[in-house]
Amino acid sequence: MSTQDQSELFNGTANVGLKDTRSVDGTDTRAIPAFVFGEELARLADHDPRIVVLTADLARSNRATDFANRHPERFVNVGIAEKNMITMAAGMAASGYIPFAATFGAFAALLGAEQIRTDCAYPGMPVRVVGHHSGMSMGFYGTSHHSLEDLGMMRCIADLTVVCATDANHLRALLRLSLDHPGAMYIRLGRGRDPQVYPEVPDLAIGRAETVRDGTDLTIIATGSEVHPALQAADELAGAGISTRVIDMFTIAPLDRDAVLDAARSTGAVLTVEEGNVTGGLGSAVAECLFEAGAHVPFRRHGVPDEHVPVGPPAALYAHYRLDGPGIACVARELLDSSKGTS
Amino acid sequence: MPVTSTDQVAHLADRARFVRTETVRLTRIAGAGHYSAVFSCAELFAVLYYAQLRLDPSRPDWPDRDRFVLSKGHAAIGLYPVLADLGFFDPSELDTYTRLGSPFGDHPDMRRIPGVDFSSGSLGHGLSIAAGMALAGRMSGSDHRTYCMLGDGELAEGQIWEAAMSAGHFRLGNLVAIVDANQLGIDGFVRDVMAAEPIDRRFAAFGWQTHRVDGHDIPALLELFAGLPAAADGPPQLVVADTVKGKGVARMELSPDWHVGNLVGADYDDVLAELEGRA
Q1: What one GO molecular function would you report for this record (chain A) (predicted)?
Q2: Which of A105, A183, A193, A321 is the most exposed place for a label (fewest CB within 10 A)?
């Protein structure tokens, strides 16, 4: 059994980070979002007494331990009780705190959906629900642990800001921005193996997409863990003479419609890439935007099809669904070829 | 102005009557409303809001105020008149009850109604909210208490027990849960639909200090609430208030038919007369 295979036996505890720093596409990375979550919040909390962190028996997985060690008086572990965690966070928010409530994305968004809507978004509480180990990054843990529906579910909740972290520096920027952002947020993190896209902490604005690579023939709109492989795909396409724009649509709600429509106008074709069910998520949001604006360009939603994924290590699953760099490049070619065929 | 104990009890009984009559009046505006689940906790509202809670209606956001979470949010129609009566807002605003765009719906909205400490309506959430508030109070060094009113039927919601477990674990001595044990849900007696008893022993097993009281006995309620241990790092406090759903109106008492209802014509006048002691 390889090191990577062995690491799949652990659900994100210390063993994963220390033994295996490779990403799904084989990139070696030490700066990984889930692992800076606790550390960055601990640093921010040194100067901001409003910050509290809650988790549901996953402090070792999301590294809330880094926060707990530094600010034990502002750390709450509720045990395996996600609904109680999110609603308690709302109660704390009503008393002036900014709670970050973190657990696996599948449990945060699905188990806690009503608590997020009713107790956080509806009363406008500044709760930050953090869903980590998102998508199918849990690999062979199976359907119960995959979070493929969270973006679709969260983005249909009114007054809820939905963002995805792209890499460690991006997550730092999001956490800093979140402190003064009004209302409730859902923050989606990967498993903690997302290779670096941003060499420094970027200057972000929530609701404004980042163009991480410019191009003229096609735009790939990606989010979260799929931004890096989208860039790899763009490299590969460049080798074939296809100039590809890559947009990091890290805010799913509210969507940056201007960035979408400009991409359609100036590159003529749009491919969305997300690590989640294509029904309801980023691709659906972009499709709605394009169609409602009358921008009828060649378009394809790429992600996990509307099915429960098979068992397998994450790297194998990404390849299976063509969500790695080569796979995305392949899907992009299909899109461009089919548009030529129909024009 | 100081009042004698006897005067205070008479005053609170009058305020409980006011809760009931206002509920009848507001339900007529809406055309339907929750009668019986309000009538069971009318004395609890009166004792808590007029004798127990530390409040300042001129400062609804006062950080050191006591909090009240109405987990059984469908009793809001009985709470609104109390908040208006205390001065949180102009009582005339209540006449918009349930009209399009009114702040006052069947369940309370904290963003639109001064004095409502948290929005509620979906059952089973309130105790978690209150636990979060109690924890926040401890973190910030405030000595306020958080009170949470639950229904006994509501105890079937699983999140209640997540919250009960956490409050016991964190020893939230500044948290007071009150179960309005009015015995009835929508479909019938709680004991038949999904038994909640023994409520006090179940909470005790989660580390709570428990009390049981007649929820319509104003002197007993006053004594119990005044005698709760100081808010500190002790066990959370549970008050099981044994009540009668629909209390105060003969046709509504322990009748499943009046969870939601509407009184029309002579029935409306009869019930008001009964509540006001004119019947």
Answers
A1: magnesium ion binding
A2: A183
